[in-house]
Structures are given as structure tokens and as C-alpha cells.
What we know:
Elements: E1 4-14, E2 20-30, E3 36-41, E4 49-54, H1 55-61, E5 71-75, E6 83-90, E7 93-100, H2 101-114, H3 124-140
Amino acid sequence: MTDTVQAEVIMSFLVSEELAFRIPVELYFDRADPYAVSFTFDLPGDVPVTWAFSRELLLDGLSKPSGEGDVRIEPSSSEHLSDVFISLQVADERALFRAGAPPLVAFLDRTDRLVPIGEEEVCDTLDSTLDRILSEAQKAG
Length: 141
């Protein structure tokens, strides 16, 4: 059984109202970090850029405007599931992408089969690390 889910989706990088580039974007999910998904954007003439954000944010953004801060996702239409806008912002710079919803839904479905949304568990190594830190703090104090 695999511990990861990967997919490649073609998205439109919306530079302006008149200019858009179709780019490949690699979607990635790892069972070891079940709350997150990452998107690696292969922008023309630039090095690939990876953004990681909440899997739940991606799911919510398919049906309603979602996200605060640097990542915002919203459907292009409230009537039916067609396209999704993904907005990424760093300081005053913003990049806007448009993706078809069906491949994102298929990706999320595959992640949900690996680790169901709402059934993510905190990693055992995190629990053991916290226990070790707390016991060391008690011994020192």
C-alpha cells in the first residue's frame, strides 16, 4: 500500500485579463502529514515553486470561497462544479490560477481513501517527542 498520492493537473496561470499560460502543477499528499497537500507550480521561465496548505481548505474551496491570508480558493461559479480559482500571495505579489474542479476532486478522493478527512491522527513520533520533552522538563525542574 502506498503512503502518498500524486497527480499532475494542467492549470491556467492568469497573468492578466488578456494573458494566461497553461502550466503543469504537481499535486502531492503524504500519509505522514495528513492535514496538508502541496502543489508544485512549474512556471514558465522560472524554477518550480511549491506551496503547501490545508487539505480541508482545498476541499472547502471547491464549493465556497475559502481561506484567509496567503492562500485563497474559490469556485468560479456558485451554481455548478466547474473551475476553481486559487490565489497565492506573498507580501504585495499575487499569483492567480484557474483549475478544473474534476481533477482536484479526483485527487482529494484518492487522498480520502488513503487517510479519510476527519480521521487524521497525530503522528506517534510527535506524541513520543512531546512526552520526552515534558519528562525532561519535569526532571530539570
